[in-house]
TrEMBL record:
It holds the Pfam family UDG. The gene is mug. Gene3D superfamilies: Uracil-DNA glycosylase-like domain. Residues 20-178 form the Uracil-DNA glycosylase-like domain. NCBIfam families: PRK10201.1 (NF007570). Its EC number is 3.2.2.28. It comes from the Bacteria. Coiled coil: none annotated. This is G/U mismatch-specific DNA glycosylase. One of its GO terms (molecular function) is hydrolase activity, acting on glycosyl bonds. SUPFAM superfamilies: Uracil-DNA glycosylase-like. Keywords: DNA damage, DNA repair, Glycosidase, Hydrolase.
Length: 184
């Protein structure tokens, strides 16, 4: 099973759309992307673009027993996992977002976390985290600051555009988070 490829017309209509979060109260981990890409906007599924390494990394790290496809995103809830974004609107690239959008998104994300109270928030992208949370020196991994009782982690962006991390390296970082949230 794989996500149906959107048409050129669907992709052209996708900028500035939003897609629903996959969330519930009391999740083990709330994964937070930077913002949805055009494939996600066109399909309505998070991390939908072929080449995005979110779904393979989630499986390789042991969070899921098999690799889920984007259209199976609702199944994450059964594993205590969810997905949201720092910025809701779709763009072709994250560099199309403004610092103000990141800061506003960070405030909205704080409110979402306070309401849902996940065990951990995993922001997938160091640059987005630094701007959204005014933490210019943050590094990948667990953060010293928490949001209420929610641990905050910054993990590599799984986009295929992020050449700094291999799939194996992303999966290793996801595994560290899985192991940390298993012990609580």
């Amino acid at each position: 099973m794989s996500c149906v490829k959107p048409t050129a017309e669907q992709l052209a209509a996708a900028p500035d759309l939003t897609i629903p979060d996959v969330i519930a109260p009391g999740l083990r981990v709330l994964f937070c992307g930077i913002n949805p890409g055009l494939w996600s906007g066109a399909t309505g599924h998070h991390f939908a673009r072929p080449g995005n390494r979110f779904w393979p990394a989630l499986h390789l790290s042991g969070f899921t027993p098999r690799q889920l496809q984007p259209e199976e995103q609702e199944e994450l809830l059964a594993f205590g996992l969810g997905i949201t974004n720092v910025v809701d609107r779709t763009t072709a690239r994250a560099d199309e977002l403004t610092a103000e959008e990141y800061r506003d998104g960070g405030l909205a994300l704080r409110e979402r976390v306070e309401r849902l109270r996940p065990q951990a928030l995993a922001v997938l992208g160091i640059g987005a985290y630094r701007v959204a949370f005014d933490a210019p020196k943050a590094v990948v991994g667990p953060q010293t600051a928490s949001l209420g009782g929610t641990a905050v982690w910054v993990l590599p962006n799984p986009s295929g555009l992020n050449a700094h991390y291999t799939l194996a390296a992303i999966a290793d970082r996801f595994r560290e988070l899985r192991e940390a949230t298993s012990q609580s």
